[in-house]
């Protein structure tokens, strides 16, 4: 039986000085064609301005922020001193760091979890063909497009124990209002409630789009096979919504970690609601104006966001069903 | 067409070949280069140049246009614009534009400080009592003595207490503008139902005796007295209690921190007991004046800058009086507050001169009265004729009279950056979490000492 051998690499066996074959010439790397150059110019023309803007207004501040995190710099001062990694050491050894990270984690888990669970429930309701569903969808989505500052101010009055609606209702039934603003735990609960209320519509609309893209044949087949609503939801709908869930989870975590407006308006002192981003604000603008230390906290937050995003992309995406 | 609306590209499909690596590296280096080309602070160790006052202002011509940054304290935007219009009409060399640069002293301070780095400085801005000293330490404002002389501004005619608040190292760093003191506000109807004399209590002990009568008077109040919202100015108003008990956050004459002194602890313990043991005091969630005007509480302490607003909102006759004293001191136990007007260093001399002329106009005796009538702030000039003002609003006379018994604030509050926030947090722990007072004050002293060593001492 004849042995099958791989053809010799002509490129390495051609004797020096020998004329290359036409096939060899075809394999030789050619320079960019006129069409390639034209495509490249079109790419530069279309993407170039955006890349410049991103470099100027996203990457430049990012790298500047990392640089500032190595400085002892007071806001407003024209001079600063380099302190290396001292700001990082101070943050990670500060007694406040654990509290800030815990608050950040609680706020993120509660707001993301609350928005997703309630958003999915609302989407399931809005996915039905009933009268007035169009208005209901608009009503659910509308808080998301409102200004966070305006929303915060309105809820400030609603929660006010003395002049607020909630306090008045509770007093009408002989109860007293919780101290939403003076008890740090309740303050965090209050802010979470408002954040979930504001962002519920966004999650619900995304889930609604996901629900409407589910092939009805699958649901009918499940019904024929005797699957009840619960089994259909957990075995058919939820797995098929996994790309949507993945997207919502990713964007909600990023948004929640960067939440600021409601925190600033509803609890300016930050007691109980002092997340990483709010602590960065307090350090730079409300306290000692320590820009360098604030930049350190911002850089820690940036690192956290990068890690979380990579973890989600690498680990969670494996569990996502696209078909 | 995709069945699903969102389909992220799998990360595993992104290969990192040599070309992509070089592209990413290039992008990173470009961004780093951009960062290196950017502005930011000078780290060469040269230090900012000191603000000096050796300009010969007679050789400078005022700028044709200047801006005035205000947070419009005490809802003063309309009256401020009215005064600016009058100034613009009274002369032709400088046109002034009012810029609302924040909703409160903190926001305008943020904007002013970021403008130091980002540009777009105002020509005149308001400085609150806790912010101007930072600008002095950062050397970003100018002393006003030479300018005051150049524009014939008579500093001797400004109320001494207010002028003294902006003096340091023998120089004047701001001119009094929207100045106030806190006063004791009360609901006269509640007082009447409780059978109390129509006056403010002279001491906190006296009010402690009155409180049960107010609570039992059938007015439906939630508290006889409402402590101010702590996120605001706990550090400011509680000086009244600290001084009344013989304590303080610190001292008006030096940088000592005294918040952990026995007297200071006793003063705050009294307030905590009023909330938790006596049950006659509450803590405002957002606005103590709003709680008072809603008749949900019988009394509170707030700025004179809130006077007109309270009178307009209240549906009952409002009473006012001096701040109560304590067991150790009955007078002086009142602090000054509010804002002055100052001038940045890094603007042209022409603008600085025009700014000084504008400040002089805004604080002329008759204009100070106009401003006071609209807001409740105290007229900052001694020669201001307040007879018409007090005839129209007699409660303003109380604020003016109380000026005679004011006391300069503790440096630990007004000169330590971020001290007000630390004080508010400590007070909140004491008054809303029933934290141990001595422990909180000990922690506060440590925090304030750190602030002094880190942010103040090196800049003096």
TrEMBL record, chain B:
Residues of the signal peptide: 1-35
InterPro entries per UniProt: Bact_solute-bd_prot1, SBP, TAT_signal
SUPFAM superfamilies (alphabetical): Periplasmic binding protein-like II
Signal as UniProt keyword: yes
CDD domains according to UniProt: PBP2_UgpB
Keywords: Signal
UniProt key word Signal: yes
Protein name per its UniProtKB record: ABC transporter substrate-binding protein
């Amino acid at each position: 039986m004849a042995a099958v051998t791989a053809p010799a690499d002509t490129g390495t066996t051609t004797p020096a000085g020998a004329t290359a074959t036409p096939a060899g010439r075809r394999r030789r790397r050619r320079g960019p064609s006129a069409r390639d150059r034209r495509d490249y110019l079109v790419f530069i023309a279309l993407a170039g301005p955006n890349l410049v803007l991103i470099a100027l207004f996203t990457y430049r501040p990012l790298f500047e922020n990392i640089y500032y995190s190595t400085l002892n710099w007071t806001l407003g001062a024209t001079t600063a001193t380099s302190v290396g990694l001292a700001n990082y050491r101070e943050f990670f050894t500060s007694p406040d760091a654990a509290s800030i990270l815990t608050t950040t984690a609680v706020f993120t888990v509660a707001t993301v979890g609350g928005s997703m669970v309630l958003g999915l429930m609302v989407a399931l309701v809005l996915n039905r063909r009933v009268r007035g569903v169009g208005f209901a969808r608009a009503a659910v989505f509308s808080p998301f497009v409102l200004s966070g500052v305006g929303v915060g101010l309105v809820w400030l009055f609603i929660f006010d124990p003395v002049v607020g609606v909630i306090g008045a209702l509770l007093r009408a039934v002989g109860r007293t209002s919780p101290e939403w603003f003076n008890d740090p735990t309740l303050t965090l609960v209050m802010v979470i409630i408002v954040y979930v209320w504001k962002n519920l519509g966004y999650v619900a609309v995304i889930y609604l789009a996901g629900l409407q893209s589910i092939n009805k044949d699958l649901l009918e087949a499940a019904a024929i096979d005797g699957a009840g609503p619960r089994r259909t939801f957990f075995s058919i709908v939820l797995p098929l919504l996994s790309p949507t869930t993945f997207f919502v989870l990713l964007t909600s975590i990023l948004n929640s970690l960067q939440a600021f407006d409601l925190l600033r308006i509803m609890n300016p002192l930050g007691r109980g609601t002092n997340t990483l981003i709010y602590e960065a604000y307090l350090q730079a603008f409300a306290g000692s104006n320590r820009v360098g230390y604030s930049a350190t906290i911002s850089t820690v937050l940036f690192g956290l966001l990068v890690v979380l995003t990579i973890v989600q992309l690498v680990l969670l995406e494996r569990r996502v069903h696209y078909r | 067409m995709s069945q699903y609306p969102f389909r992220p590209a799998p990360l595993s499909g992104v290969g990192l070949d040599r070309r992509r690596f070089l592209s990413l590296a290039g992008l990173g280096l470009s961004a780093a280069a951009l960062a290196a080309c950017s502005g930011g602070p000078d780290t060469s160790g040269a230090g900012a140049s000191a603000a000096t006052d050796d300009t010969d202002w007679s050789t400078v011509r005022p700028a044709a246009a200047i801006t005035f940054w205000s947070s419009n304290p005490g809802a003063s935007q309309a009256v401020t614009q009215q005064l600016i219009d009058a100034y613009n009409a009274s002369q032709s060399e400088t046109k002034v534009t009012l810029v609302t640069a924040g909703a409160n002293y903190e926001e305008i301070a943020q904007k002013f400080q970021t403008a130091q780095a980002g540009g777009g400085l105002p020509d005149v801005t308001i400085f609150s009592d806790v912010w101007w000293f930072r600008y002095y330490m950062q050397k970003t404002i100018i002393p006003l003595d030479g300018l005051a002389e150049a524009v014939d501004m008579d500093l001797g005619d400004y109320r001494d207490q207010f002028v003294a608040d902006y003096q340091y190292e023998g120089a004047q760093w701001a001119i009094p503008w929207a100045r106030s003191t806190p006063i004791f506000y009360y609901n006269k109807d509640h007082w009447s139902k409780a059978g109390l004399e129509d006056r403010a209590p002279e001491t906190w002990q006296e009010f402690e005796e009155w409180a049960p009568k107010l609570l039992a008077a059938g007015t439906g109040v939630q508290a006889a007295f409402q402590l101010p919202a702590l996120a605001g100015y706990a550090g400011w108003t509680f000086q009244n209690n600290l001084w009344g008990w013989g304590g303080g956050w610190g001292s008006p004459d030096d940088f000592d921190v005294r918040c952990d002194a026995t007297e200071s602890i006793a003063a705050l313990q009294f307030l905590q007991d009023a909330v938790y043991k006596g049950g006659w005091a509450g803590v405002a969630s957002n606005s103590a004046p709003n709680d008072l005007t809603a008749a949900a509480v019988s009394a509170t302490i707030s700025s004179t800058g809130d006077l007109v607003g309270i009178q307009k909102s209240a549906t009952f006759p409002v009473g006012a009086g001096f701040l109560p004293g304590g067991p150790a001191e009955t007078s002086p136990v009142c602090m000054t507050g509010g804002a002055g007007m100052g001038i940045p260093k890094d603007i042209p001399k022409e603008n600085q001169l025009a700014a000084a002329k504008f400040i002089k106009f805004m604080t002329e005796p008759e204009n100070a009265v106009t401003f006071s009538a609209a807001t409740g702030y105290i007229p900052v000039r001694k020669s201001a004729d307040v007879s018409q003002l007090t005839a129209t609003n007699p409660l303003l006379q109380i604020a003016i009279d109380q000026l005679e018994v004011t006391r300069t604030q503790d440096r630990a509050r007004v000169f330590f950056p971020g001290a007000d926030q630390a004080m508010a947090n400590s007070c909140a722990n004491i008054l809303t979490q029933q934290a141990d007072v001595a422990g909180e004050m000990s922690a506060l002293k440590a925090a304030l000492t750190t602030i002094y060593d880190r942010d103040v001492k090196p800049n003096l």
